[in-house]
Specification:
The complex is a heterodimer of chains A (about 260) and B (about 250). By secondary structure, chain A is mainly α. Chain A contains ten helices and no strands. Chain B is built from seven helices and nine strands. A six-stranded mixed β-sheet of chain B has the order 5-6-7-3-8-9, with helices on both faces. The N and C termini of chain B lie far apart (about 40 Å). The chains are: A mainly alpha (about 260), B alpha/beta (about 250).
Chain lengths: ~260, ~250
């Protein structure tokens, strides 16, 4: 006689969420369909919530009529200019803080103190200093980009495994080559994650700055559409901004795939 | 060329790590450093290789290194220390890029060392694609590429499983014999020491002093299992009590 067998019950399921591209599009489409339906049934006034179709139509008119392009260009130039200035400065300062004792000892308290300031609060001051033109807006964005970049670069450099640096030193690799070939590639994942944050900050700041003091730019356009109660145009502007955000996210993902293929 | 370590002592803050360590290693000779865990073997190797400054004493090389040697004292690391973003070939090339070599010459050295270490077909693989044994082969290939005189090996095979370790040690012994290389070989594996070393320096627990130096009189190829086992037992009887003390000590630190 053998003892009765009881099979071991499977208990390892769950906690393994998978993503599927297909269902993402489906969910997105469902939201749009409900939105369109609510508008078509007249449950909400088109003045407060225009239907997706109307927003697309407004977008089309703005693009075809050429009205939106000066605003898009103005915002784009500010974003790219401010981000580039803030990133270059942030890379330099972050790298110095990661590598040199003096820079770390003096820079860290400064960065910690200034990082939490909402940079848009400095725009009035920057306008006083630099005038109402482009420079003050670009400077605001650059400041907003600078601090997260410094912190990302600094912590990226700091996280490079020490054993790799010691290895390079033991083979007499020159210091500059160690920075270029060991420290920078090692810090790259953290630096690129920082780019994601700084790009989002740049987008946020350009809109805020343009709402405070600008005639052109998507922020100004959206504000103006709001005061004229042109909600379809307003949301068309918002759509363009979200497309900006998506494009930047895509660009950084591509950069990550290219530069971090080794991971 | 001969490596001369003379009366080296070292402290980490208040902690006395080693006292008055002296030994010599000549080209073509393998010296194993064994001792209880945490006795400062790796610190010793760091000092020998110029990665740490000794608190007292000197480390010197006597006699000219062979012509063409780019890095007479060359490390092989326990954790391999490979650049994960570089392919196998590029990891080996990394240590040659700052030397005055024509690109063709550099490529030739890389190809030659990869062939000698059995890595030719993995030249374009990345470290994460390789097994631990293959990764350490890259570490050894990288070390050979700079034509070293004495290898400084810090537990080079201890991160590997037993079977892989045996395979690598066999290949490593062939490479050493073919190149007349010397080595300072830090290990806690007494059997490994008895198999590979010409001389074994037995260190005491912290602060480490030299307890004994054992000379293995037979050539490596002629050591049978009984010979190795006898020396392993002898080493263990020297170390056992201190290893037990060292193990308990960790809890008191």
């Amino acid at each position: 006689m053998s003892d009765p067998a009881s099979s071991v019950r499977f208990r390892g399921g769950g906690f393994a969420p998978a993503s599927s591209r297909y269902s993402a599009w489906l969910a997105f489409a469902a939201v749009l369909v409900v939105w369109q339906g609510v508008c078509a049934l007249g449950w909400v006034s088109p003045l407060f919530l225009p239907s997706p179709v109307r927003i697309v139509a407004a977008l089309w008119h703005l693009a075809a009529g050429g009205e939106i392009w000066p605003h898009v260009w103005a915002s784009l130039i500010r974003i790219v200019g401010g981000w580039a200035v803030g990133t270059v400065a942030g890379l330099a300062v972050g790298l110095a803080m990661g590598l040199f004792t003096v820079a770390r000892a003096t820079g860290m308290p400064m960065v910690s103190a200034l990082f939490p300031i909402p940079k848009i609060a400095l725009l009035p001051l920057l306008i006083l200093w630099l005038g109402i033109g482009e420079t003050s807006k670009i400077a605001t964005i650059a400041l907003g980009v600078f601090f997260p970049t410094v912190i990302a670069v600094y912590s990226g450099v700091d996280s490079v495994p020490r054993n790799l640096i010691r290895m390079a030193q033991s083979f007499e690799v020159p210091t500059a080559a160690i920075v270029w070939k060991v420290i920078l590639p090692g810090a790259m994942p953290t630096i690129l994650a920082g780019f994601r944050i700084s790009a989002a900050t740049a987008l946020l700041l350009v809109v805020s700055a343009e709402m405070i003091g600008a005639e052109t730019g998507l922020g100004a356009f959206i504000l103006q559409a709001g005061s004229l109660m042109q909600t379809d145009q307003l949301l068309a502007g918002v759509t363009i901004l979200s497309l900006f955000g998506l494009a930047v996210g895509r660009a950084i993902s591509t950069l990550e795939r290219r530069l971090l293929r080794w991971r | 060329m001969e490596l001369v370590v003379d009366s080296v002592s070292h402290d980490f803050g208040d902690l006395a790590v080693m006292r008055d360590i002296s030994f010599r290693v000549a080209s073509g000779e393998i010296l194993a450093l064994v001792g209880p865990s945490g006795c400062g073997k790796s610190t010793m190797l760091g000092i020998v290789g110029g990665l740490l400054q000794p608190g007292a004493g000197t480390v010197a090389t006597v006699g000219a290194p062979p012509r063409g040697s780019l890095n007479p004292l060359t490390f092989v690391f326990q954790d391999f220390a490979l650049l994960p973003w570089r392919s196998v070939a590029a990891n080996v090339a990394f240590v040659l890029e700052h030397a005055q070599l024509a690109p063709a010459e550099r490529q030739a050295i890389v190809a030659d060392t990869l062939r000698r270490t059995g890595l030719a077909e993995f030249a374009h693989s990345y470290p994460k694609q390789l097994s631990g044994g293959m990764r350490q082969r890259v570490g050894i290939a990288r070390a050979l590429a700079v034509r070293p005189e004495i290898l400084l090996m810090d537990e080079p095979f201890s991160a590997l499983d037993a079977q892989t370790r045996d395979l690598l040690i066999e290949d490593f012994m062939r490479l050493m014999a073919g190149n007349r290389l010397g080595a300072v070989y830090v290990t806690h594996n007494l059997k490994e020491a008895a198999r590979l070393a010409d001389r074994i320096v037995v260190l005491s627990r912290r602060p480490a002093r030299i307890r004994e130096t054992i000379v293995l009189d037979r050539p490596r190829a002629a050591r049978d299992d009984a010979y190795i086992a006898a020396h392993q037992r002898a080493l263990w009887s020297l170390i056992r009590d201190e290893a037990a003390d060292a193990e308990r000590e960790v809890a008191n630190v």
